[in-house]
Design a protein that fits this description.
alpha/beta, seven-stranded antiparallel sheet, six-stranded mixed sheet, 4 helices
Length: about 270
């Protein structure tokens, strides 16, 4: 019998895969959806809606990903440049079709933005992981999902996977109505979009105002927060220290920080 409100970490075999773009489309002006396929996808496992894979982004002139040197890998030949790597959420995995979907939030110039903007059928991509999954039992009375554009892939996946008719509130900041997404879900979904210019994406005020004015439902609720690092910490502190929410029922992660490349930090202790 599964423990009520159980939270478990599941480890996976770490593998590096070479996949090929099947399709690339603009969901919104600032969001690109890429569908990947390839024989290497066999055996891929992603058990958690906010899992992360390492994308090894091929540079111009590279026919295959050049993985950075690891503890068990030999040094790269002199003059060889490793492909840049970034963390992304597996938006959807369909083993029957042999497809993996990844959504890219397009912002300032960077290797992920450049790769996704140029992706075409046949474009190659290295995918590593996920190393593990954070699995939350779907038996809470309600859910609150909070984030910015970078959190939308995990939010969309969670909404697809949650049980029917469970109440879910989504608070999401985007640049404008053109960036709002329609989610497929059987939950009782209440989506609240907060608009702000992209150049103010690191300002916590927009989401903090929305959260402080929110009346949380009765019963046991699970809260998930992701986005800009400082904003995530402020929101978690507010919900735990000022609203008294059970800290074990909140997961918070900084997906990015202004001025930092390839940033990711969890805030689930203390």
């Amino acid at each position: 019998m599964t423990e009520r409100h159980a939270v478990a970490r599941v480890r996976h075999e770490l593998r590096r895969r070479l996949l090929t773009v099947k399709t690339a489309e603009r969901l919104t002006p600032q969001m690109v959806r890429v569908t990947l396929t390839g024989d290497d996808l066999k055996g891929f496992v992603s058990a958690g809606y906010d899992d992360h894979v390492k994308l090894c982004l091929l540079l111009a002139g590279q026919d295959a990903p050049v993985w950075p040197v690891g503890p068990d890998a030999p040094a790269l030949p002199e003059g060889t440049v490793a492909s840049p790597m970034r963390d992304f959420t597996p938006r959807r995995h369909d083993p029957a079709k042999g497809e993996l979907v990844v959504d890219f939030a397009i912002h300032a110039a960077g290797p992920a933005t450049e790769w996704a903007s140029a992706a075409r059928p046949g474009t190659k991509l290295g995918v590593g992981g996920p190393r593990g999954s954070f699995v939350v039992t779907d038996d809470f009375d309600w859910y609150l999902l909070i984030g910015d554009e970078t959190a939308l892939p995990a939010i969309g996946r969670r909404l697809e996977e949650l049980r029917a008719d469970v109440p879910v509130i989504v608070l999401a900041t985007v640049a404008g109505s053109e960036e709002e997404q329609t989610f497929e879900t059987t939950t009782r979904l209440d989506t609240r979009w907060v608009h702000r210019p992209l150049d103010t994406a690191s300002d916590p005020a927009f989401l903090l105002d929305a959260v402080t004015s929110l009346q949380l439902p009765e019963g046991d609720g699970y809260i998930w927060i992701a986005g800009e690092n400082d904003t995530v910490k402020i929101l978690r502190r507010h919900l735990v220290e000022e609203r008294g929410h059970n800290r074990s029922w909140i997961k918070a992660a900084g997906y990015w920080r202004k001025g930092s490349a390839g940033f990711h930090e969890n805030h689930n202790e203390g």
